[in-house]
Write a structure and sequence with these properties.
259 residues; binds magnesium ion; globular; 24 strands; mainly beta
Length: 259
Amino acid sequence: EGPAWFAAGRYLVFSDIPNNRMLRYDDTSGHVSVFRQPSNNCNGNTVDRQGRLVTCEHLTRRVTRTGFDGRIDVIADRFEGKRLNSPNDVVVKSDGSIWFTDPSYGIMHDYEGDYGTQEIDGCHVHRVDPQTGAIAAVATDFVKPNGLAFSPDESLLYVADTGASHLKDGPRHIRTLRVNPDLSLTPVGIFATCTAGMFDGFRVDPKGRIWTSAADGVHCYDPDGTLIGKVRIPEFVSNLTFGGDKGNRLFITGTTSLY
Ligand code: MG
């Protein structure tokens, strides 16, 4: 999970959630090494506008940022006084605000975190104000919000709902929400429904196309929702990101391998 490309260092950081570690793929040598262990069963990662690592942690039920000096700061761990569920995936908007999803996968069992009590009434999408650090719930009508990404002009936020994982006939789609000037969200509709398993993490390319994880690989959608094609992968795909010198290489995390 959680692939994040660091252009200056030419390496990719990614999460091995059940093994409680983060790994680093060095693009200069092809070598993979342990980046952080224990990792607090971290899941989604991203790189903020300053080039810092932002991480969702299941075990500690928080979102953190790793500074240039290596110090780890807590960005969010509570909402209205209650512990978060288990932050899953995260993106940073150009204004520095941090947006993350908070489904309960990390506290439902001991496999990807610790079994624990859900304190928040629901699984929401949250936004953290870059100036004040205040945390808001910006979407509260998801079953299990998961991957998320902005359109290139940041007028739209796409959010996956993997509610079908534990709910018969639950959602297995990506929704579109309009980002208002005050950073509130207005639901637009369902962008696409997954035809192979569920959409977990995904990214939007500079032309607005959505490249999303699915059970049989990566599905690529035109901004109008048309399925353009698939990158077949021989195991479940959890997430992906773009990297390389030109940002045109796709790094894909599968269940047991990085592609
Ligand atoms: Mg996810």
